[in-house]
Design goal:
mainly alpha; about 270 residues
């Protein structure tokens, strides 16, 4: 995996945090994952909070659309959390106590980071998400044979294979809408999908740090393309219209083909 460049002021707390997690959850992968997902929701909550604050104060509105992306990212992490709960990762009271208090603390740390520099906050999140990619990937590879024998939790099937995948597409800003449809046949697939999700978060966090990149919702982009296609279709229909007594359209215009071309953008 490509290493995430970061200044020393971020690397030191990142390394310390990884050491604490490795120590507390040694040989306990599921509680570790549950802890990570409890905390992993906080960055997107804090970013949405700060974007709301900036908009309310009239300081900044150009990034308003990214709130949609951050909400979809939080929705994704929430379902990772539900998957880990379905697997029993939250059974210890001490783990729940530590994770919930750490999440609240992490929220305010990221708010402070954002006030200092949004790029720094996004950079730190990219480090954490990249660590999650490695953590899930190592667990998946080390337990491949066993995981392929175990069924997936119902919540994983609902999230990855449900009829409404709007929010699943929404957080994956580095790819086009509908280009990723994971399979969920066993528990191995579930952990592989979660690792891939975390990699998508890394890509989005990288884009958020680049002032030359406008982070857009994949669904919003599809809607814009659809609107443009409809406008082109209307222009084509008007161009081919025969303005005679009945205002009938000229023969030879293939309406079915035109509608099919429009549907490809939706």
């Amino acid at each position: 995996r490509e290493q995430i460049p970061a200044p020393l002021i971020l690397k030191l707390p990142y390394i310390s945090l990884c050491w604490v997690i490795d120590t507390l959850f040694e040989d306990r992968p599921l509680p570790r994952f549950w802890f990570l997902e409890t905390v992993a929701r906080m960055p997107y909550f804090s970013y949405i909070s700060m974007l709301h604050l900036y908009e309310s104060l009239g300081w900044w509105r150009r990034s308003a659309e990214i709130k949609r992306v951050h909400f979809a990212e939080e929705w994704n992490e929430f379902h990772h959390l539900l998957i880990m709960e379905a697997l029993g990762g939250d059974q210890r009271w001490s783990d729940r106590f530590f994770a919930q208090h750490a999440a609240v603390f992490y929220y305010w740390v990221l708010v402070a980071m954002w006030l200092l520099s949004p790029s720094i906050a996004y950079n730190f999140s990219a480090l954490i998400e990249a660590h999650a990619v490695d953590t899930y990937g190592e667990f998946r590879d080390a337990n491949e044979a066993l995981l392929k024998q175990l069924p997936p939790p119902q919540i994983a099937l609902q999230y990855y294979c449900g009829e409404d995948l709007y929010y699943f597409d929404e957080f994956q800003t580095a790819r086009s809408k509908g280009s990723r449809r994971p399979k969920v046949q066993n528990l191995y697939d579930v952990f592989a999908n979660i690792a891939d999700d975390e990699a998508e978060h890394v890509n989005t966090m990288k884009s958020c740090q680049d002032p030359q990149v406008i982070v857009r919702s994949p669904n919003a982009e599809a809607a814009v393309l659809a609107a443009a296609a409809l406008a082109a279709a209307a222009a084509k229909l008007a161009e081919n219209a025969a303005f005679d007594e009945g205002f009938e359209f000229a023969e030879g215009l293939d309406i079915t083909a035109l509608l099919e071309s429009i549907s490809r953008f939706l």
